[in-house]
UniProtKB/TrEMBL annotation:
ATP binds at residue 42. GO terms for molecular function: ATP binding; protein kinase activity. This is Mitogen-activated protein kinase kinase kinase. The keyword ATP-binding applies. Keywords: ATP-binding, Nucleotide-binding. The keyword Nucleotide-binding applies. It comes from the Eukaryota. It holds the Pfam family PK_Tyr_Ser-Thr. Transmembrane segments: none annotated. Gene3D superfamilies: Transferase(Phosphotransferase) domain 1. It comes from Solanum tuberosum. Residues 6-116 form the Protein kinase domain. PROSITE patterns: PROTEIN_KINASE_ATP (PS00107), PROTEIN_KINASE_DOM (PS50011).
Length: 116
């Protein structure tokens, strides 16, 4: 079982397969890589982690892409007597593409031009 590599913070959101939390690390080395001081953890119950296991495989295929959220890997932690399965993700502080598209009507550059 992995040692606790971070301090889990506020919940950023929830999707169909897990809860995403902000987490603070301190010069933590995970699989040979120093993690940023803030990461996003996408977690679910280990017993229902098949979808996240597939997601991590896909994200790792794009690990060199600047257009896809970086995934540092996955692990199982032991927190408050449960064993969440966690994806360790780059924290995207400006929100998701879906968040931005939802708000796009309020952005001037997305104003719809009407043709007459
Ligand atoms: N890497 C991240 N950095 C910051 N916030 C994130 C990150 N990943 C997810 N979030 C937040 O958590 C929410 C839920 O994300 P998640 O990936 O679980 O679900 P989804 O992609 O919206 O939907 P689903 O997984 O059900 O298709 C997002 O809408 C976003 O607000």
């Amino acid at each position: 079982m992995a040692e606790l590599l971070w301090k889990r913070g506020t919940t950023l959101g929830e999707g169909g397969f897990g809860v995403v939390s902000l987490a603070a690390t301190s010069n933590t080395i995970f699989r040979g890589v120093t993690l940023p001081s803030l990461i996003a953890l996408k977690s679910c119950n280990f017993n229902a982690s098949q979808s996240l296991k597939e997601e991590v495989e896909i994200l790792l295929m794009f690990k060199h892409s600047p257009y896809i959220v970086h995934c540092f890997g996955a692990n199982v932690s032991f927190e408050d007597n449960v064993n969440p399965y966690n994806l360790l993700l780059e924290y995207t502080s400006r929100g998701s593409l879906a968040d931005r598209l939802q708000n796009c009507n309020s952005l001037p550059e997305f104003e719809v031009k009407k043709h007459t």
